[in-house]
Structure prediction request, 84 residues.
Amino acid sequence: MSATPDEIARWMFSEMKNAGVLYQTAAVEHIRAHYGESFIYVNENGHASIDKEVKKSFKKLHGGKAAWDRDGFFWGWTSAIKEG
Prediction:
């Protein structure tokens, strides 16, 4: 059975919840190794990126409590509070 965007998003959310941050390079490597190349694409800047459907599901899970840091290429909590 192949992975779904929701399944990958749940993994991303769990990782961020445990570590407080989720670096894109680490997420891309994990997704590529465990879920396959089909969930990775090269963006307009030439960087490996995560499928838009996965990111959409991830956004639903964190409900706006996480933000993308453009300079550091990671997601982190918008506050120090880890809820749920």
User: Anything to note?
Assistant: Residues 80-84 have pLDDT under 50 and may be disordered.
